[in-house]
Amino acid sequence: MTTSNATLPAARRVLLTAALGSALVAGTALPARALDIPPRPSEGAVQDQADLLSTQEEADLNRLIGQKNKDNEYIRAAVLTVDGTQGESIEDYSRKVATDWGVGDDGRNNGVLVVADMGERELRIEVADGAREVLSDGDAESIMKDELQPGFKDEKYAEAFTNTLTEVYDQANPQAAHEREVRSNTIMGVIFGLLGLGGVVAGLLAWRRSRRTKKIREQADREIEQFQREHPEENITEGMRRAYYRYRQQNPKAPGLNATPGKAKDKDGVEREIQYAPTFQSWLPLYVMYPAVYSGASHSSTSGGSNYGGGASSSFGGGGGFSGGGASGSF
């Protein structure tokens, strides 16, 4: 009896310790919050969630990528801008997005994803294993230092992406780079002769575009403020505001009676007609139902064809092989 009474508390302590250890292990084994991957572009290869590019600049980048994809089988590139990486490092975030989007061709793993995080002011050129055969980590680092970082430090975002993508594709196709240099040298004299006039014209166009964008945003802000006054219980996020800016820039006025509605794919890949919303209040329920369709992403029209030149080779072919190749930087 004495031995039994002495060992009972010890046994209880063992059981209690084991139960506590199991609870701690179970607690640490709880799954981490899933990463909210940005939606893959419904058309083109640029997802500008940080709203760095004008509609025209985004369209120009998509045309560039589409044309390079036609001319170059070694690289398939895409672009993503965000305001944060949800606590992930820029390297892990870029790798997960590129894998989820399927950047590159299936079986060739030739994808390249260029990412700009405006929240932490970080940059990344993520290169898949197959693409590293023609675009080494050293090449990616040089392009980062020579093109992407300087452009972002000067806040010339479209120029930075254009130069970066051009170098990425040309690195994989040296002949194209050589031909581009020869053409550039040939017409240099003509360019200098027209530089003065071209500068004036470019300046006027930039001023008009800037003025138009400012007016559209001011009107959008007024509509949002009015909606918030009338619906104080509604939480309008910064993401909603930026999405409405983009939508309104692409849809500044009602389409004509005979105009063919544009189309865009929702998050499930279903193509839907884009209805015209004259105000923020009429746009909001459409956005809540189909955020990918009404976020201002450039869309296609059944009569006008693609905003990106049509027939462009896609950068998304189910590629993978993103094991951490590429280069990172900051600005």
Automatic annotation (TrEMBL):
TM regions (residue ranges): 187-207
Pfam families: TPM_phosphatase
Signal peptide: 1-34
Keyword Signal: yes
Transmembrane helix keyword on record: yes
Chain ranges of the TPM domain: 46-170
Gene3D superfamilies: 3.10.310.50
Key words, A-Z: Membrane, Signal, Transmembrane, Transmembrane helix
PROSITE patterns linked: TAT (PS51318)
The name this protein goes by in its record: TPM domain-containing protein
Species in which this protein is naturally found: Kocuria tytonicola
